[in-house]
Every structure is written in structure tokens, then in C-alpha cells.
Amino acid sequence: xxxxxxxxxxxxxxxxxxxxxxxxxxxxxxxxxxxxxxxxxxxxxxxxxxxxxxxxxxxxxxxxxxxxxxxxxxxxxxxxxxxxxxxxxxxxxxxxxxxxxxxxxxxxxxxxxxxxxxxxxxxxxxxxxxxxxxxxxxxxxxxxxxxxxxxxxxxxxxxxxxxxxxxxxxxxxxxxxxxxxxxxxxxxxxxxxxxxxxxxxxxxxxxxxxxxxxxxxxxxxxxxxxxxxxxxxxxxxxxxxxxxxxxxxxxxxxxxxxxxxxxxxxxx
Length: 268
Ligand code: SF4
Description:
Blueprint: E1 6-16, E2 24-29, E3 50-58, E4 61-69, E5 71-74, H1 75-83, H2 86-92, E6 95-99, H3 107-119, E7 123-128, H4 134-141, E8 146-150, H5 156-163, H6 168-177, E9 183-190, H7 198-208, E10 216-221, H8 227-232, H9 247-256, E11 263-266
Parallel strand pairs: 2-6, 6-7, 7-8, 8-9, 9-10, 10-11
Antiparallel strand pairs: 1-2, 1-5, 3-4
Helix pairs in contact: 1-3, 3-4, 4-6
The chain binds iron/sulfur cluster.
């Protein structure tokens, strides 16, 4: 019997409404080649399992419980999880979203899951940084209806400074992807004085003029929720004192992008 590729997953969430159209099942793959300084999901960084200390409560008793973060699944096992939600997908024009970490970093597993979902007529979406080689990207694009594609920093040196990688492959993949059949939505994180400078936002605006008929841009304002995760994981956090992203500033940026896509949202 052929041995199935396994993928490392750290979370599976049903009834998700912010990861593509309709009601979705979102599969969070573990492992990301980037290290964005503001990342809200530091538990997704490593390509391996890790111990995770979680506070739990029974009545008035609060205690620490150790759990292992990350579990290996075959593509068939994940598809079985996904198909339990098909009635909700059908009612809401929803489907499955692979997120992370980055699904492109486990390309064989992601391709298998997406291909099997397409065969079952399930709408497929991939949430990605866009970082990776085109060969893998192209294969995944043949079975993906929608990409949620991050554009963080247009300048390669700034991109490397704040994410650990330059953005060459990200921009090249985006320019190739626009010639394929998948729909693309652009996601821009708003981090004060890092991604929201006029120079960066203007440069991103210029890049997205190359995507004809862009339907949607999601602006993702920085929030502080992840801070506790870094503390619990004993990871350094570079934005200890950064407040939530100011709403008035985010709204102005939203207006500024209003002619760049059919729809511009705050928060995805
Ligand atoms: S690409 Fe996404 S998951 Fe990876 S480090 Fe950046 S924000 Fe986090």
C-alpha cells in the first residue's frame, strides 16, 4: 500500500467566518519560514511539535496543563474532518481554508488535501505569505479557488529586517499567480511605523495595480492579543509596548485603498 504523506497541524477550527467566503473549516499548518516581528501565531513557527503550558479551570481551581502542540495527520484524515462540515459549506457557500504557519511550507501535504477537496466539490482557499518556490506554488494553485495573499513590506531590506526573509519570491509568485485561474485577495497587516508608512502603502498600491480586477483587500490592524502567547512560550517579543492599532488611522488607510479593489475591509 502506498504510504501517505503526513502534515503537521496545530489547530482545526470549524465555523470560521474570517478566512474566506461563507462558513469555513480552517486547518492551521505548523511551520513558517518567516518570523514576522508582529506575528499573532508564534505557536505556528516551528516545523515540529512542542510542549505548551495552558491554564485550565475546574470550578474555582485554576491549574496549568501541559499539552503537545502539533499533531501529524494524513491527507485522508484531514479530509474526513473537513467533510463533516459540508452541510454548512453548502448553506453558506463556504469551504475549507488552509492557513498556518504557511501551507506552502508543507506543499505535498497541502496539495493532497486541496486536490481531494476539489474532487468533492469543496471550495478551497489558501492563506499564505507567498514565500516559496514557484513549482510548489503552481501545483497548489491548480487546486485552489482563492488565495489570501499577504503583502507586508514592499522594500526587500525592510521585509528582511521585520520578517527574516526578503520578498523576492513573494512578489515573483504573485506576478505569476495573477495569470492563473485562482482568485486573489490581498491582506495587508497594519503595524504602526513599520508597514503603515506612506512609502510602504504607496509601494503596495503600485504592486496591486498589476492584479487585474482585484476583488478584495483586507487590512489587518495590529492587536496585542498575541503578547501573552510569547510570554508563555518564553519567546522574545519585539513589540511589548506597542498599543492596539488606532482605529482612526486604519479607517483613513481603508479610504486610501478604496479605489484599489472592489471591496476593502478592516480586520478581514
Ligand atoms: S508569515 Fe504569517 S504565520 Fe508566518 S511569521 Fe509571518 S505572520 Fe506569522
